[in-house]
Structures are given as C-alpha cells and as structure tokens.
Write a structure and sequence with these properties.
By secondary structure, this protein is of the alpha/beta class. 38% of the residues lie in helices and 23% in strands. It folds into 2 domains: 4-231, Rossmann fold (3-Layer(aba) Sandwich), CATH 3.40.50; 249-342, no CATH class. The chain binds adenosine-5'-diphosphate and magnesium ion.
C-alpha cells in the first residue's frame, strides 16, 4: 500500500426536508491509501452512498449538509473548498461510477462524443488526439470493435458494455481516487466478474485507490484490501478484509456474513437479512444504533454509545462487549447452549 490519499474524520451529514432532519452520517472516520481498495458495506440506507458523495463533495445542498468533520485529500482539508477548486479536483483526480449506467450516459449523444468530451475537459488535447484517446480507452475496458462503437448511442449497448463505457469515462482523467457505488449491482454475475476484474487490472496499471461500495460481501472478499461496515450512518467495524472475515467482532457484521452465506446457499429465495429494521435517523439514537436488533443486547447498549476500540492492529469495533472478550465468550456459550436445547 502507498501513501495516505484520503482521510475522512468524524464526519456528520444531515438532510433537512421540511421540519424533518435526517441524521444520515454520524461520526464516520476512515482512511484510504494509494493502491488500496476499501470496501464499504452495510444494508440499504446505512449511509454508504452519502459517505461517497461527501468524499466527492457531491451532497446536494439543500437538502443535505456536512455539519462537521473533515475530508482530507492529500493532506488538504477539502470539506470547505470552493466549488471551482472542487470541480477541478473531481475532474482531474477523483472519479465516480454509479450503479445504473443508463442514467449516467446521455441518450442523445454517441458514446464516442461523450467520451471525447470528458477527455477534452480534463486534458488539453485536440479533437483528433481526443478521438485517439477515446479509442484507446474503449479498447482498454475491453469493448470489441471500438472504432465502430464510438459512433453508436448508449441504447445500442448492453448493460455490461454501458458500464464499461462509464468506467472508461471515469478513468479518462486517470483518477487517483475512483469511487464505485454498487458498480455491478445491475449486471449479471458473469459480467459483474468481468467488470470487477477489469477494475483491478486498471488499478494495477494506474495505481489508483478504489472505494468500492457494495452490499455484496463476496465482492468485497474478491476485490478489497480493507473494509468498513456501516450501520445507521456509523462505522460499526473496520479492519483488513482478512481480519473482518476471519474474526468478525460486531454482532451486526456476524449478521451480515450469516445472511450472505444463507443467500448464497439459497440463491432462488429472497431471504430477510437480519430481523428487524434500522432506527429512524430523524430521531436521536441513544446508545448503540444496533441495540434493537442485537441478539446480545444488554442494558448498557441502550444507555450509552459504544466507543470504537482497536482489538488488534487496524481492527476496530464499536461494541460494548468487545473490550471484554471473556464476556463475549460467555454469551457465545450461552447462545450455543440455548440453540442446542432447541429453546
Ligand atoms: N437527498 C436526500 N434527501 C434526504 N435524505 C437522504 C438523501 N440522500 C440520502 N438520504 C438519507 O440518508 C440515509 C443514507 O442513505 P444512503 O447513503 O443513500 O444509503 P445506502 O447507500 O447505504 O443505501 C438514508 O436514511 C437516506 O434516506
Ligand atoms: Mg447507496
């Protein structure tokens, strides 16, 4: 891993709709290094996309607002940077790929035109050079017959090909930071694997850092170095992928891993992930936000918010019972005993 590229520290984001204030992000911290792929996982609504948008300073205001915290990119706090400087940064250093490529490509222009425009904005190239570069980018992302494809419109491409085009556009500025928000969710499994392999290849070539947002823990396992597990706008656990998969510390992480295993085994059925639902973020959450759904909840969990503590090097968890491993073991035994007797 290279130098630290991005550091988000104690970030808070709110959305105000009428008189309702949704506290979407509540004290998120993490860092990302050159060449590193960081996975952000969590159920729908946990704040993954808002975290990514905040890092790019793309929170729509109104209704959204970063209320506190810092976003440090290459040593500079960009949380207050003016829009014109931010736009430059977004064009030259940071790129984002969204889930649905159909909404991100303009249907009335050819793919070549859109790619060329993006290249010409970021690089000072002639039309001819930009066309050459577009061709090279399409070939790079594995689009066959690239020369003919440049003249085609987005609707003439399959979903997987459109997502490749989006990746080509996102990479055309050779970003140092690529944020991919569920980039393969809309694609079938084979295409998904191809796109992910492509992103890893391009990372090797360009040395960029990737923030990979996904609800699929299999994708994280395949592609990421480190992971943060989000819930109710907070980081419940973070560590290297190996640490978190070998030794998940938060009951929420256990739940996510269990439901993933269950859904892998029953790919036909839609399984409820973890029983219950996340807290309403328009009310203040006292204590641990997972308390209502946690099978190990105790009084203290509802009373005070657990601090995030490091259990081993780089592996952190926000749970009252993780600092006392004997307590955890006791609970685990009790739980195994209970299920063994069928109660
Ligand atoms: N434009 C918005 N206006 C109001 N609330 C929003 C907006 N965008 C996101 N939120 C709220 O922020 C929370 C986190 O959303 P999001 O980051 O999109 O979740 P995820 O990507 O993990 O599914 C949700 O409660 C959502 O309702
Ligand atoms: Mg999202």
């Amino acid at each position: 891993m290279g130098e630290e590229l991005l550091r988000v520290e104690d970030l808070f984001v709110e959305f105000k709709t009428g008189s309702i204030v949704t506290k979407a992000i509540n004290g998120v911290s993490f860092s990302l290094h050159q060449n590193e792929t960081l996975g952000i996982v969590g159920e729908s609504g946990s704040g993954k996309s808002v975290t990514a948008s905040a890092a790019m300073r793309l929170i729509p205001n109104p209704p959204g607002r970063i209320t506190s915290g810092s976003i440090v990119y290459k040593g500079q706090d960009i949380s207050q940077l003016n829009e014109s400087k931010m736009r430059k940064l977004r064009g030259n250093e940071m790129s984002m790929i969204f889930q649905d490529p159909t909404t991100s490509l303009n249907p009335v222009f050819t793919v070549g035109h859109q790619l060329m425009e993006s290249i010409r904005i970021h690089k000072n190239l002639s039309k001819r050079e930009a066309k050459q570069e577009s061709l090279r980018m399409l070939e790079l992302v594995g689009i066959p017959a690239a020369k003919q494809r440049l003249k085609m419109y987005p609707h003439e491409f399959s979903g997987g090909m459109r997502q490749r085009v989006m990746i080509a556009i996102a990479l055309s500025c050779q970003p140092q930071l690529l944020i991919a928000d569920e980039p393969t969710t809309a694609l079938d499994v084979t295409v998904q694997a191809q796109i992910l392999a492509l992103m890893k290849d391009l990372q090797r070539e360009f040395g960029m850092a990737i923030m990979m947002i996904t609800h699929d823990l299999g994708v994280v396992w395949e592609t990421c170095d480190s992971i943060i597990v989000m819930y109710a706008g907070q980081v419940m656990e973070r560590g290297s992928v190996r640490q978190v998969y070998d030794k998940p510390l938060h009951p929420y992480t256990w739940g996510l891993l269990d439901s993933q295993i269950a859904s892998d085994q029953n790919s036909q059925e839609v399984l409820p992930a973890i029983p219950g639902s996340p807290p309403d973020l328009s009310f203040d959450v006292q204590g641990c936000p997972f308390a209502d759904r946690c099978p190990y909840v105790e009084e203290i969990c509802r009373e005070s918010k657990p601090a995030r503590v490091a259990i081993e090097d780089g592996h952190e968890v926000a749970c009252h019972f993780q600092t006392d491993t004997s307590e955890l073991t006791r609970k685990e035994e009790a739980n195994i005993g209970a299920s063994a007797t069928g109660s």
